[in-house]
Structure formats: structure tokens, C-alpha cells
């Protein structure tokens, strides 16, 4: 009897242990039946559509004066007076320096006196030559006397011309004592003061005048970029804008846009062998003299118009372990596929795609982290950045991507 009770207790414990082992599995199965099939992940996507885009590039450059004139004296003398304020604007023909004119006035007066003397002697010499010709017909004088009289008259005439030239030269030198501005512009500091001795055509300039309105902006562009642009134009990927193709926007050193547009004047025809770049010269209006020579600026130059540009949001692009740009697309069967892209450049908060996508394909923008290639997804339209959400800065520099 005691052995029978012991066997019943053992059997009870065995049944209890089996129930505890089977019960969790049964609960899990019951929960799965109640939950139903697994849900399909949802992603937001944009449809790739072609659009017309103006492609520009930012190039660094520096400003330089439109005209530059270095003021140098053309005669020797003492500076009597400086007649301008350093750093002021001067007009063409404005008197800048006055050199002591006294010795040049004396030279002019002396030349005029010598000219008068030569002119006073000419009538008597001319009459003597005429009388000699009359007397020669009567053989009252010799031929030699007439020849000497004619030569004396010619010498007197030549002396008059000499002194006329001397008078004009003295008058020019006297005028050079007034040092005037050859161009209009802003004059810099003076290298001499009143009482300084200056010499004609000395190496050191007295001052420098620079015309600041308009002003030049010289930027450099690599020859490789020029070749790339020409290939795109020849292939039809870009077209020229005849109306605005020469308009240039300027960004100041702190990144703020300059209010006035510039005009592309020319592209240099020579490539610098040390840098592999050439110079582009831009003429920019500068009525307020906001731009000064030597300032660093950036010029936004139009490359052309892309008629069939494909743009996708930057957040839809990631990188594979090799650093190559990739994106996820959803095919007609709502299956995710991975695409390798070639990116041209960033335009605002979007990438310009050179290759890897087709028109009409759906690119995954949101929900990338919860999907992977090969799985089915539910696609909803992407609504774009929300109000107040920051987007990336505009960058039009080409990128090298495979």
C-alpha cells in the first residue's frame, strides 16, 4: 500500500513537468495564430522625373582695379604743393602736384626772346638777298655774293624754326610742372611731401590712382573642367543659355551675395603649366566701392542648361563599403532593389544623378533603415522637408563619384 502511494506521487510529478514543458510552446503558437501574417514595411519614395536645371560652378578669385595709373613726374624739380587728399576720389585732369615752375618759366621766356631775335633779323637778310639778285642781272655783284646772301636767308629761316621748337619744348616742360590725374578713380597715399625733390620718370611713383567702378574679378578654372564642359556640350547633355550665359553672380568673402551681377568678359587663351588652370575675367559694377582691389571672392558662373536633369534628395543616397554612392529603388512588383549611382554634383538639398537611374523609377527616401534589397514593401509618396526643417547648403561643385 505504501509503495502504491509512492508510485502515484512520482507519476504526478512527471505529468506536471511535461505540462510545464509543453505549455510555453503552445502559448507561442496560439499567439502567432492570433497575430496573423507579418506586416509589410512601409517606405516613402519619390518618382524620378526629368527637369530643366541651370548648372553653375563656384570659382575662387580676387578683385583688381579696372584701370591703374602710377603718377610720376616728367621734369626735375621741387614739389611746391600737394593738392589732393589721400584716399579721395579724383577726376581726370585734376591737379595733384605743383612742381616749382620758375626755372621752366625762365626757359620759356628765353626761348621766346631768341625766337623774336631770329624773326627780327629775317627781313633785312631777305631784302639783301633780293637786291643781290637784281644787281646780278646788271653784273654789279658776283654770283658768289648772291649765293652767300641766299644761304644767310636760309640760315635765318632755319634759326626761326629752331627757336619755335625750343619755345614749344619749354612750354611743354612748364606744363609738366602741373602733375594732373590721367584717369578718374581713387588715389592712394602720397610717397612725397611738399618740398621733396623729384626727378623725371623716377622709378618710385608719387601716388597711384585706381578706377574701382567697374572692377575686375579674376577667377581661375582648371583646364580639366573646361574639357568636361565641352564634352557635355558636344554630347547634348548641356545647352548654352544665350541670354544669361555671360551673367555672373558674386559671393563676398563672408559668403553673402553681392547685389549686382557681373559680366564674363573673356577666358584666357593660355593655361598656366604650373597649376593647370586658366583665368576668367569678369567685369562687375561697383558704384558703392564695396569691392576693393585684392579682395577674395567667389564667382558663380553658369555652365549651361541641363534639359533632362535627374535630381533625387540627398538623404536617399548612402555609401557602400567601397565608398560608392548607392540608393534603393522599388520596382513594379514593390520589391526593393539596390542601384549603384554616378553623381555629378549637389544642387541645394538634392543630388544631380549622371547615371544609375531611369525616368519613372521610385527612389526610397524614408524608411531606408528598415528595408533591404529583395524584400517587398508598401510605398507611399514622400512629402518632402517639413516647414522649418533645415536643408543642406547649395553646392554646385562637381563631385567625382562612381
Automatic annotation (TrEMBL):
Gene3D superfamilies (alphabetical): 2.40.30.170, 2.40.420.20, 2.40.50.100, Helix hairpin bin
GO cellular component, as recorded: plasma membrane
Domain Multidrug resistance protein MdtA-like beta-barrel: 214-304
Domain of life, source organism: Bacteria
An MF annotation (GO) of this entry: transmembrane transporter activity
Span of domain Multidrug resistance protein MdtA-like alpha-helical hairpin: 108-177
Main location: other
Stretches assigned to the Multidrug resistance protein MdtA-like C-terminal permuted SH3 domain: 308-368
Compartments in which it is found: Cell envelope
Domain Multidrug resistance protein MdtA-like barrel-sandwich hybrid intervals: 68-210
GO BP annotations listed: response to antibiotic
InterPro entries referenced in this protein's UniProt entry, alphabetically: MdtA-like_b-barrel, MdtA-like_BSH, MdtA-like_C, MdtA-like_HH, RND_pump_MFP
Similarity remark: Belongs to the membrane fusion protein (MFP) (TC 8.A.1) family.
Name of this chain's protein: Efflux transporter, RND family, MFP subunit
Species whose genome carries this gene: Desulfobacca acetoxidans (strain ATCC 700848 / DSM 11109 / ASRB2)
Amino acid at each position: 500500500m505504501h509503495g502504491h502511494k509512492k508510485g502515484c506521487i512520482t507519476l504526478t510529478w512527471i505529468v506536471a513537468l511535461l505540462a510545464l514543458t509543453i505549455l510555453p510552446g503552445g502559448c507561442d503558437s496560439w499567439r502567432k495564430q492570433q497575430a496573423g501574417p507579418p506586416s509589410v514595411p512601409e517606405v516613402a519614395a519619390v518618382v524620378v522625373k526629368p527637369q530643366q536645371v541651370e548648372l553653375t560652378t563656384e570659382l575662387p578669385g580676387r578683385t583688381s582695379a579696372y584701370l591703374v595709373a602710377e603718377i610720376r613726374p616728367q621734369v626735375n624739380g621741387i614739389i611746391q604743393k600737394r593738392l589732393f587728399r589721400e584716399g579721395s576720389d579724383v577726376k581726370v585732369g585734376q591737379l595733384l602736384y605743383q612742381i616749382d615752375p620758375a626755372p621752366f618759366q625762365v626757359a620759356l621766356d628765353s626761348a621766346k626772346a631768341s625766337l623774336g631775335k631770329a624773326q627780327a633779323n629775317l627781313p633785312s637778310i631777305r631784302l639783301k638777298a633780293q637786291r643781290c639778285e637784281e644787281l646780278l642781272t646788271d653784273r654789279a655783284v658776283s654770283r658768289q655774293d648772291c649765293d652767300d646772301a641766299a644761304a644767310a636767308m636760309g640760315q635765318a629761316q632755319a634759326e626761326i624754326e629752331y627757336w619755335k621748337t625750343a619755345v614749344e619744348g619749354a612750354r611743354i616742360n612748364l606744363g609738366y610742372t602741373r602733375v594732373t590725374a590721367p584717369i578718374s578713380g581713387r588715389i592712394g597715399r602720397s610717397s612725397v611731401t611738399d618740398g621733396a625733390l623729384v626727378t623725371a620718370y623716377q622709378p618710385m611713383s608719387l601716388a597711384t590712382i585706381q578706377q574701382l567702378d567697374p572692377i575686375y574679378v579674376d577667377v581661375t578654372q582648371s583646364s580639366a573642367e573646361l574639357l568636361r564642359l565641352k564634352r557635355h556640350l558636344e554630347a547634348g547633355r548641356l545647352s548654352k543659355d544665350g541670354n544669361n550665359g555671360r551673367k555672373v553672380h558674386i559671393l563676398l568673402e563672408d559668403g553673402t551675395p553681392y547685389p549686382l551681377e557681373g559680366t564674363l568678359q573673356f577666358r584666357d587663351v593660355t593655361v598656366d603649366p604650373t597649376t593647370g588652370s586658366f583665368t576668367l575675367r569678369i567685369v562687375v559694377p561697383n558704384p558703392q566701392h564695396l569691392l576693393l582691389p585684392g579682395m577674395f571672392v567667389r564667382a558663380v558662373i553658369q555652365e549651361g542648361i541641363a534639359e533632362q536633369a535627374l535630381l533625387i534628395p540627398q538623404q536617399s543616397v548612402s555609401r557602400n563599403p567601397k565608398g560608392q554612392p548607392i540608393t534603393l529603388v522599388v520596382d513594379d512588383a514593390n520589391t526593393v532593389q539596390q542601384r549603384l549611382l554616378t553623381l555629378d554634383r549637389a544642387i541645394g538639398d538634392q543630388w544631380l544623378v549622371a547615371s544609375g537611374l531611369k525616368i519613372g523609377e521610385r527612389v526610397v527616401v524614408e524608411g531606408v533603415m528598415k528595408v533591404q534589397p529583395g524584400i517587398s514593401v508598401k510605398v507611399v509618396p514622400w512629402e518632402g522637408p517639413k516647414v522649418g526643417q533645415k536643408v543642406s547648403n547649395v553646392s554646385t561643385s562637381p563631385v567625382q563619384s562612381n
